[in-house]
Design brief:
By secondary structure, the chain is of the alpha/beta class. The protein is built from 15 helices and 25 strands. A seven-stranded mixed sheet has the order 16-19-20-14-13-22-23, with helices on both faces. Strands 10-9-8-11-12 form a five-stranded parallel sheet, sandwiched between helices. Strands 6-7-25 form a three-stranded antiparallel sheet. Helix 2 packs antiparallel against helix 4 and helix 3 runs antiparallel to helix 6. It is globular and about 80 Å long.
Length: 510
């Protein structure tokens, strides 16, 4: 049985939770609806973190007006100066890193070490994109005609609608807002209703860093109200969304009506391939981190292990032994390895897939919600492993988004590559092998936007593009300089100083 640890104590029942507000223009303001909703600690639902504004379409309209008003001045601010504000924001995040991480663990549930990593990603992307304020390269090329200059530049699109999930409640908003802002766009930001406090403390630091009024606007509330209003608003020119594939498809349909620029980062069903020559201890480390880190609630989490049959038993022995030692509990406890799922609906979803898995494979560990003792007040699920799963079984094909791992046995590398690719998603993959030729084949063959060799499927660095193939998204990338592509338009410029009319493709052929 997986070990458990006691969650942090909730606030006193008599203690009223604080109330938080939207941030529009330069003001913290209440919703026009007058309604609020509560955010709870998933490790102990008795702990109410705060009350947040239930936003409306009218609130979104006000935020868009503020962003539009701020946009004309912000886009004319020199990009290096915009970058300086990003540097200040990154420095403030670094200064408040521990406070931010603890706030995240309390609201989202991931263990404190991971929360610190989440904040660090925000710091890293702020500094990286601040540097883009002095790069943001275009191209200068020779003209085909004499006395003529040819070049291309990036320019901002306008207002960016930023809609983010709960699993990386600081890193992902930063991944999206930092390139948008350094490029000269303004932002209307809607966070997940499961993590509004994380978004609020982030925006507080952005205001302190000196982003001008109206440049960054925060509206909390439901996706069907706030999110749809952002997507439908004709003055919002670009939408960046991370979340489920089903929701992403709905957003794509809405945004296409106005031909909006749209960046979608959606689901994953990521696989780790373990070859017969692999270092099995290293592979075990990578699998455990990728499958059960963040309680499996990552788009890059490994939910499939495709392993050569000759090493299935020794690998499973290691995985089962190590998994039994993982401790469940509040992520604020340094002794805890696995925190809660985000809410009770997530527990129910994982439980339903375990039921499917019992019919498709052999359950060897876990398989049930963890509700013993103090854990009864939280949303915990025991790390779960199935063996004898077939590549096309439902638990090997559908995104579960929880601590459920399927072991798929294959005969050789060729069969492994087919199994890795035999899914509608294509975000992240990994291979453990000591053979350089096999590693390079995997780098070529695996149909994913990210490939790891002798590492797990998680741990992207901010200076490389992040995103996937197939139904993982719509082709855009976050992080790296490629992130600027979502939030900029290309403009080609020709300057003719010949003093006469020169006609390209006509006069240059004479």
């Amino acid at each position: 049985m997986t070990e458990t640890a006691t969650p942090a104590r909730p606030a006193s029942p008599d203690e009223q939770p604080p109330t938080f507000r939207h941030f529009i223009a330069v003001d913290w303001c209440e919703s026009s609806s007058g309604a609020t909703f509560d955010s709870h600690n998933p490790a102990d639902a008795r702990d109410v973190i705060g009350r947040f504004q239930q936003g409306t379409a009218a609130d979104v309209a006000m935020a868009v007006r503020a962003a539009d008003t701020a946009g004309s001045l912000w886009r004319r601010t020199p990009a290096p100066k915009r970058g300086e504000i990003l540097y200040r924001f990154g420095a403030l995040m670094a200064e408040h890193k521990e406070r931010l991480a603890r706030a995240m663990t309390r609201e989202m549930g991931k263990v404190l070490a991971e929360a610190r990593g989440d904040v660090q990603e925000g710091i890293d992307i702020a500094f990286l994109m601040a540097g883009e304020g002095r790069r943001m390269f275009g191209d200068t090329t020779p003209s085909e005609l004499p006395d003529k200059w040819a070049m291309s530049i990036r320019q901002p699109i306008g207002i960016a609608g930023i809609i983010t999930p709960w699993n990386f409640p600081m890193a992902i908003p930063c991944w999206k807002m930092m390139p948008a802002l350094v490029a000269g766009n303004t932002v209307v930001f809607k966070p997940s209703s499961d993590t509004p406090h994380c978004a609020t403390v982030l925006v507080e630091l952005m205001a302190e860093a000196g982003f001008p009024p109206g440049t960054v606007n925060l509206v909390t509330g439901a996706g069907g109200e706030v999110g749809d209003a952002i997507i439908d608003n004709p003055d919002v020119s670009v939408i960046s969304f991370t979340g489920s594939s089903a929701t992403g498809k709905g957003i794509a349909a809405r945004a296409s009506r106005q031909l909006k620029r749209l960046s979608l980062e959606l689901g994953g069903k990521n696989a780790i391939a373990v070859m017969a020559d692999a270092d099995l201890d290293l592979a075990t480390d990578g699998i455990l981190w990728s499958a059960f880190g963040t309680t499996g609630q990552r788009c890059t989490a490994a939910s499939r292990v495709v392993v050569e049959r000759v090493v299935v038993e020794p690998l499973l022995e290691r995985l089962e032994s190590r998994t039994r030692k993982l401790r469940l509990g509040s992520g604020l406890d340094d002794q805890v390895d696995v925190g809660p799922l985000i809410n009770e609906a997530a527990v129910d979803k994982v439980g339903s897939y375990v039921g499917i898995g019992r019919r498709e494979g052999e359950l060897i560990l876990g398989g049930e919600a963890a509700r013993d003792g103090e854990l009864a007040n939280g949303h915990f699920f025991a790390p779960t492993i199935f063996r004898d799963v077939a590549p096309m079984d439902r638990i090997a094909q559908e995104e579960i988004f929880g601590p459920v791992l399927s072991i798929i046995a294959v005969e050789d590398y060729a069969a492994a590559a087919i199994a890795v690719n035999q899914t509608r998603y294509g975000l992240s993959s990994s291979i453990f092998t000591r053979d350089a030729n096999t590693a390079f084949r995997a780098m070529r063959d695996f149909e994913t936007g990210i490939v790891y060799v002798n590492a797990g499927t998680t741990g992207a660095e901010t200076h490389l593009p992040f995103g996937g193939w197939k139904q993982t998204g719509n082709g855009h990338r976050e992080a790296g300089h490629a992130a600027l592509d979502t939030f900029t338009e290309w403009k080609s410029i020709y300057v003719d100083f010949s003093g006469r009319l020169q006609r390209a493709q006509i006069d240059n052929q004479e």
